[in-house]
Amino acid sequence: MKKPYISKNVIQRMPRYLRTLTELQKEGIHRISSGELGARMRLTPSQIRQDFACFGGFGQQGYGYNVKTLRDEVASILGVNRGFQMVLVGTGKIGQSLLENFDFESYGFKLRAAFDIRHDLIGENICGVPVLDCSEMEDFIRSNGIHVAVLSTNRAGAQRAVDTLIAGGIRAIWNFTECELSPGDSDVIIESIHFSESLLRLGYHLSNSASA
Amino acid sequence: MKKPYISKNVIQRMPRYLRTLTELQKEGIHRISSGELGARMRLTPSQIRQDFACFGGFGQQGYGYNVKTLRDEVASILGVNRGFQMVLVGTGKIGQSLLENFDFESYGFKLRAAFDIRHDLIGENICGVPVLDCSEMEDFIRSNGIHVAVLSTNRAGAQRAVDTLIAGGIRAIWNFTECELSPGDSDVIIESIHFSESLLRLGYHLSNSASA
DNA sequence: CCCCTCTCGTGATTGTTTTAACAGGAAAAA
DNA sequence: TTTTTCCTGTTAAAACAATCACGAGAGGGG
Fold first, then answer.
1. Which residues are CB-neighbours of B117 under 8 A, at least 6 positions away?
2. Domain with CATH 3.40.50.720 in chain B
3. Where does the pLDDT of residue A1 fall: very low under 50, low under 70, confident under 90, or very high at 90 and above?
4. 3-state class of B54 per DSSP?
5. Residue among A95, A88, A143 at smallest CA distance from A115
6. Mean pLDDT score of chain B, rounded to an integer?
7. Pairing relation of β-strands B125-126 and B129-133?
8. Per-residue pLDDT at B212
């Protein structure tokens, strides 16, 4: 299996394949062709075949794709069930909301601890996750082999937290702040969710749509 | 000014330009060249010049771009200050969290009402936004000329809410559910934020990074 | 067993996006 | 004023991505 380079757009589509295939499985559908899957996802059959071909090709001529097999392959590509170790930094509104609502487990992430600087929260336990003091963070990451940090601090604390995380040897950051994070010369992976950018895009489409 | 077609990627970058330019303005920087802006945003100067050229070109040879002018142009392209009228559907955890934390006003959106089916919430007031019964939604949208709906229902209620919104004449939906929404033959604009897809992408990069 | 249908994987083609190169004109310096 | 420097907008080239077209091989019916 050769993997010279997987394009950004292909990676962007993989989680959506996983979601769709999981739904198909729940609906009790065992096999599907690129054409049917394409109709469902509004993609061309060609693109679907080529996307999976990047990773080796999991289909069979004259038959299509086995839904379970394909789902498992996609899950494996995305690293689900790898049991990535995780911490959360910043237990403000967004942080707490994630702790309470988001099902990290089902995507293969284990949330070990949350960190904050506010002393009224430290020592508490939010949905089974202990809240610790930020000063312990670097050690905690190193000793527990933490792979990923959810960054949900306020603007002021973001870059400082990033520096500490990198010092502790973090490998990836899931960024919910509106900041432009600077990873220095580290090769840390940063994946951001920017609410405001998404809403502004919507504003653009609204301003420029036919019925504007 | 001709606008044959603005590519998706260009639109994707516009909100980031707005954010960066706003920061520059706060820092008291009045002029900037495509080279300096590119260094700051990790984009090539060429790309920046070409992006702005799509909309007419706002710079001056030998000088660069005036930060305030450029920021205002980008804001105008994105429709900030158009005063889009908005409602929120589904006052669960995510919905409430948005109501309490997100500064809709500063991006040019006016939140007029929230809707839910749970009777214990109806009649309440969250951060100055009244919570109404879903049965009133279609009328409310029509009578108040609502442009956008934030969709933060649970999975079960999502498609039903979409149908009602479209019936009321909504023009855009900011989707926080994990569902594949079907707009039927309506030309409603859908902009989604999928937490899980973002996290799964992070998982991919983590699984396939050098230090994996 | 043979034939027909179905559908994948792949190589060729077309289309799109990014990067590079440059002509022209403003700013700044001499 | 003249010259030099700087930097845009635009055109051309390169890189990248999506689509098309087809050979090959499995499934299924007769």
1. B133, B134, B157
2. 84-197
3. very low
4. coil
5. A88
6. 94
7. antiparallel
8. 58
Nucleotide nearest to A59 (CA to C1'): C8
Are the Cβ atoms of B19 and A197 closer than 8 angstroms? yes
| B98 in Cβ contact with B88 (< 8 Å) | yes
Give me the CA A24–C1' C20 separation in Å, rounded: 47
Cβ of B7 near strand D (under 7 Å)? The reply is no
Query: Which residues of chain B form CATH 1.10.10.10?
Result: 8-77
Which of A9, A159, A170, A206 to mutate to test binding with chain B, by most B CBs within 10 Å of its CB? A206
Are B85 and B144 spatial neighbours (Cβ–Cβ below 8 Å)? yes
Q: Is residue A52's beta carbon less than 7 angstroms from any atom in nucleic acid strand C?
A: yes
- Exposure string of A143-156, with b = 16+ CB inside 10 Å and e = fewer, is eeebbbbbbbbeee
For A84-197, CATH number out of 3.90.20.10, 3.30.70.120, 3.40.50.720, 3.60.21.10 equals: 3.40.50.720
Q: For residues B94 and B175, what is the distance between their CA atoms, to the nearest angstrom?
A: 11
Residues of chain A contacting residue B178, judged by C-beta atoms under 8 Å apart = 19
- pTM to 2 decimal places: 0.94
Return the half-sphere exposure (C-beta side, CA atoms, 13 A cut-off) of residue B96: 14
- The angle subtended at Cα B48 by Cα B45 and Cα B53, nearest 5°, is 125
Question: Residue A116 in contact with residue A134, Cβ under 8 Å?
Answer: yes
Give CA–CA dist B170/A132, Å, rounded: 45
Return the pLDDT at A210.
73
Of A148, A178, A196, the CB nearest to B206: A148
pLDDT in tens, B192-209: 999 999 999 999 999 998
Size of interface A-B (CB pairs under 8 A): 163
Class level of CATH domain A8-77: mainly alpha
Locate B180 and state its tokens: 């594949």
